[in-house]
Specification:
Blueprint lengths: L4 H8 L3 H8 L7 H14 L5 H7 L5 E6 L5 H16 L3 E6 L4 H13 L5 E3 L8 H7 L4 E4 L9 E5 L1 H14 L4 E5 L6 H15 L5 E5 L6 H12 L7 E4 L2 H14 L9 E6 L12 E4 L2 H17 L8 E4 L2 E3 L6
Parallel strand pairs: 1-2, 1-3, 3-4, 4-5, 5-11, 6-7, 6-8, 8-9, 9-10
Antiparallel strand pairs: 10-12
Helix pairs in contact: 1-2, 1-3, 5-12, 8-9, 10-11
Length: 332
């Protein structure tokens, strides 16, 4: 494996910026620190990649990250992972939140391109829209985050959401539940559709099990609360609910237990998705399907930087992680 500038910095006990200053002949580094850097270069056999340096010429040391909703703790964790990985190579991350609006997304893309960002990390507002080809034709390095594409114009980092939905509902069925509701969010969202597909596969594997789909117009706590209030008013409510993300699950939990007197998990077992930071701290600790959010962000940056360095093998352009079920009290 090629020695990178961050390896030199760690070996010399200095920052990546200090190594860069030494390599570029800047006189802002103390003689002692400069000597340690030069010794580390010799010991590790570091060879500067001039082709990559020329490729980056004229661009800022910044990377654009545009997500659907920065208020969602999942995307906040993605951003943390991206920032940490970018800092290792002396980059900063510029963050935008599209709100799922394609026009807003395009505005961010235009602004970031004017700032000559090195590349773009994007969770697209419109899956399989024209944004990938638009950026590719403009020569902008791109990684899709928490998204997949049939196009070879972009790298992708995603999670197997079909498996995640299957994990969630198979767990509820294994707890003896049989009347499953999926509070799904907008069904046009690729992640929601995949999680629902996994849920359907799990139900199909158990005789006598049934599945009800409750679509909401958003994936927020308020939308979950509204769904929970509707369930509470029914006399024939399901005995288990799979929520397409943890924000929906938190809203459901509020409506059912705090406002409606329905016991979770006794009357309704509940599973969420994402395993956000406060899933374990809800009034009934929430069982959830964990996505490696910070690792998604870090891997996306790594793919982008390897594109810039010309080091990315075509077979490594698509990375997919497997989700993990984290069982807590809400599912029994």
């Amino acid at each position: 494996m090629a020695v990178k500038i961050k390896d030199v910095a760690a070996h010399a006990g200095v920052s990546v910026g200090t190594v860069s200053n030494v390599l570029n002949g800047r006189e802002t580094v103390s003689p002692a620190a400069a000597e340690r850097v030069r010794a580390a270069i010799d010991e590790l056999g570091y060879v500067r990649n001039d082709a990559a340096r020329q490729l980056r010429a004229g661009r800022s040391r910044s990377i654009a990250l545009i997500v659907l909703d920065v208020g969602n703790p999942f995307f906040a964790a993605v951003a943390r992972g991206a920032e940490a990985r970018a800092a290792e190579d002396g980059y900063v991350v510029l963050l935008g939140s599209s709100g799922g609006d394609a026009d807003h997304e395009r505005l961010y893309l235009d602004q970031f391109r004017e700032q000559r960002v090195a590349g773009v990390l994007l969770t697209p507002a419109v899956p399989e829209g024209d944004v990938v080809q638009h950026l590719a034709s403009a020569g902008v390095p791109l990684v899709l985050v928490d998204e997949q594409t049939e196009s070879d114009a972009a790298c992708t980092v995603s999670v197997d959401d079909v498996e995640g939905g299957h994990l969630a509902v198979a767990h509820l069925l294994a707890q003896g539940r049989s009347r499953i509701a999926v509070v799904a969010g907008p069904l046009t969202t690729r992640q929601v559709a995949d999680r629902l597909e996994g849920a359907r596969r799990a139900v199909a594997e158990v005789d006598g099990a049934s599945l009800e789909v409750i679509e909401t117009d958003a994936m927020t706590v308020l939308a979950g609360r509204a769904a929970g209030e509707a369930l509470r008013e029914r006399g024939d409510h399901p005995d288990a609910v799979f929520a397409a993300n943890d924000l929906l699950a938190v809203g459901l939990l509020q409506a059912l237990t705090m406002l409606g007197g329905i016991r979770v998990p006794d009357d309704i077992a509940l599973v969420g998705y994402d395993d956000i930071d406060f899933a374990a701290a809800t009034v009934v600790p929430l069982t959830s399907v964990r996505q490696p959010a910070e690792e998604l962000g870090a891997t996306a940056v790594d793919l982008l930087l390897r594109q810039l360095d010309g080091e990315l093998d075509p077979a490594e352009r698509q990375v997919r992680f497997r989700p993990e079920l984290v069982v807590r009290a809400s599912s029994g």
